[in-house]
Amino acid sequence: MTGGPPPSAHRIWDDAPAADWPDAFLTGNGEYGLMVPGDPHAERLVVNHHRFVLPNGTHDARAPHLAALLPRIRELVLTGRRAEAGELLTGGRDLAWTQSYHPGFALTVDAPATTVRDYRRHTDFTTGEVVVRWSGRRRRSFVSRADRLVVTHLDQGDCVVGATGDLPGRPDTVHYDTTAYRHDGLVFLRVRGRYPDVGGAYGFEAVTLVRGDAEPAGDRVLVRGPALLTTALERTATAAWPTAAQQRRLADGPADYPTLLARHVTRHTGPYRRVDLDLAVPAADRDLPVGALLDRQVTAGDRLDPALLERLFHAGRYLLFSASGVLPPRLTGIWTGSWDAAWAGDFTTDANLNLQLAGANVGALPEVTAAHARLVRAQVDHWRDNARAVYGARGLLAPSRTDGEHGHLFHVHPHWPFTAWLAGAHWLLHPLYEHHQVTGEPLGEVAGWLAEVADFFTDVLTDVDGQPALVPSYSPETGPLDGAGRPVPVAVNATMDVAAARHAMTVAAEVTGSQRWTAARDRLPGYRIDARGALAEWAWPGYRPDDDHRHVSHLYPVWPTGEIDPEDTPELAAAAHRALTVRGDEDGSAHGILHRALVAARLGDGPLVGAYLRRIVAADMFFRSLMSAHNPGRVTYNADAAHTLPAVLIEALVQTRPGLLRLLPALPPGLRRGTLRGVTCRGRLTVEELTWDDGRVTARLVAATSRRIRVRSPYGDTDCDLPAGTPVRVTHRR
Questions:
Q1: pLDDT at 6
Q2: Cα–Cα dist 609/665, whole Å
Q3: What is the pLDDT of residue 546?
Q4: Could you give the CA distance from residue 51 to residue 48 in angstroms, rounded to a whole number?
Q5: Which of 458, 289, 453, 345 is nearest to 101 (CA)?
Q6: Which residues of the chain have pLDDT under 70?
Q7: Which regions of 202-358 does DSSP assign to beta strands (E)?
Q8: Sign of torsion, CA 339 618 295 1?
Q9: How far apart are CA 454 and CA 598, in angstroms?
Q10: Which is nearest to 407 in space by CA: 333, 353, 341, 477?
Q11: 496/460 Cα distance (integer angstroms)
Q12: What is the DSSP letter of 301?
């Protein structure tokens, strides 16, 4: 198609509107999200807000008080009555869910049907702008980071602008009111959503200012010629609607699209462009519509398509940044077009959230980690409440899921006994500790939280026949098999819990200078290697693993903590690799496969990384927005694959350990040449540029402080002096 922008890996385009909401193109500012289907004559722009969750009665739920039952629970676990222990660990409660994330409403733009020529819609990752063009007409949208507004410019002739809450799955208990009106000479469109009275928020309001030749007409606005729509959103805890404040904010804001876009771009483009990946893709491939890219990979079978992989890398960083601000990304990022989001569209913390965050620190997006820190900071007091209620212990016990309203641990069931998951707080604090490693910024309050995690493990560590043990313990979301071959989740010494305890106590000593955890750390159980030579999921004899399962929590000491490494602990690394290869993937879930890919990268197995990537990209897991699905065949809208894939590629290309930089440690087959720029590594080391082709690798490195490191690649080692702030080039040849 002629007349479009030049080919670029930093945008996607399509030659048809979205057939359904999951294919809508996406933009967001970390608080508001917008979904743009691109229909020329009946557009439905779905508006989202990170804090829109449907009250369901769990807003004030709290952790069960189980401390007095712990002796009995431990006795049941140790005598083989683990299912009974699981019942006690629920506190006698039925399974309760977090408040479900939901869409706000849809802005509607309706116009008389005309012949559509030269249709094209595109998303520009560099600006966050979504543009729809047809027949010489145009609609442009973005969500402003600078002004906290959804912005849409209409240049499509006469049309009618309205709003609707009639989106898929909307419950009858939510009531909408929409009106158009004139105030102080300006035309506004207002939407209010009223929640049921079951505890939690009262409702939400959106006010849209329509600038241009516009006239209210009932609950809609008649527009003649070009118009600018700016929308502000708020959730309210009471019936005191914020209409007046929203009207003032909109009226006082910039009145033209170019000014609004320029203000937004200053906050969006810089972070997005810090990291770049160029896989030497021909311009013709970069100019393919997104549907053609996706179809080509699905039919390519075992060959990774560099054009799609490069685009997914950039799309993943764009979506991750766009979904992070007031909070980190949810299971759906910041977007949904339906009220029936799977798993309540919440923050699932036993795997999904941290996997989505895996590329934030090394991918030079500290804004994403800051959003995660806001979530943690708001909930850490609740984690203390959980530890006291469940274990009578000091420290922090995190829940397996949160809707962003609180961090109390109430989602429990005999099959999912998350009161026995001890590693949660360590897992959720690890990205904040990694941020410190990457940037050198002081840990501040995070140091105290890390110490509290170490205190928690010290308090719950017990003795069984003279041997130290963590009991009860849980490896999400499975357990050792019983006599009938069914997993029973509650167990002793889940490897994830043991690894988290060891790392927590080590890091707490490092960041506080205190040695008060040394004795407890030295008493922790060692890892076990089973009869197959695989790292066991539980450091306890007699357990049979559930090998056909999507989670690989027992590989926690490989990724993220790096305690097990091929050079430093070769025997354990070999056992971890064996554990990886004997594990099935159950239902082909994206988070399970990419978790495996991150572990494979840390273990230096490029072909295995490539195999896992192929299982994602060739399984029809991406919508036309390049948002991903949870399962093959585009089943269940879910951000895990989209947000995690860039981290896998970075880990495959660059890794650091103290005194060591690895270049191309796990290069997937088929990526014969390329350039990666801007990766920020632990130890305050930036790989400004890494270029590789057949038989040659070159890196330009900048260290924040002077040091000597060893640089390793498939073609050799170099001991390299890095003066502070001075770029140094290293080249290895075959």
A1: 74
A2: 11
A3: 94
A4: 9
A5: 345
A6: 1-5
A7: 203-217, 220-236, 276-278, 347-348
A8: positive
A9: 26
A10: 353
A11: 15
A12: T
